[in-house]
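ok trying this again, last paste got cut off
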Amino acid sequence: METQKLQINEQHFVLHPSGGLLWEERKALLISDVHLGKISHFRKFGSAVPREAIQHNFEGLSQCIAYFKPDTLVFLGDLFHSHLNQEWLLFQKWVQGISQDIILVSGNHDIISPLNYEALDISVVSELQWDGFLLTHHPEIREGVFNFSGHLHPAVRLRGPGRQSLRLPCFHKGDSQMVLPAFGTFTGTHCIDPGPKDQVFAIADSSIIKI
C-alpha cells in the first residue's frame, strides 16, 4: 500500500488509498460519502448486490483507523444513505468497538435524526472550522479558508494510446479546496475536468498516484 503526503497552509495531510485523509496536526481522520445503508436499501428493492459488500464498508473503516490511529474521526457527510435499516444495527456495533471521538458533518443523505447519532456519542454539525480550514459536505469557496469536502464522488479518466480508458476515484485539489473520493462501496463516481493548476491524486491498486 502506498500513501501520499501533502502540505497545505503549513499543515500536513496523508492521503490513503481507501479514500480517507489524515490531518496529522489534529490527529483527525476525514472520510466522506460512506453511504451506509445504501446496499441494504437496494437489496430490499431487488438489486443483485452481494450481502458481503455491506461488511466491506465496515472493514475498510476499521483498517483505515488501525493504520492511522487517529484521535478523532470526521465524516464529511452522507454517512448513512437512507432511513434506518439493518445496517444501522451493524453501525451501532461498529461504533461501540472503536475509541475515537466521532463527528458527522451532515450531508444531503443524512436524514436520520441527530438524536440517533447523539445516543452513540456522535456529534452532528453542519460544518466545522478548524485552524483556517473549513470542513463541509458540499464543496464551498469561502474567503480566507481552505475547504475539505465530499459529495461529488470525484474520479479521473485515464486514456491509453488506443481506445482503452480507465476510470479511477481520486482526490481533487484546487487552490482553496480539496474534494475527497467516496469511501463507500457501491457509491458510483463522477469524472472531473481538472483545471491546469489543479492536483489530482488517483486511487489504483491500493496506491495513491499523482496524475
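PB: full thing came through this time. The mean pLDDT is 90.
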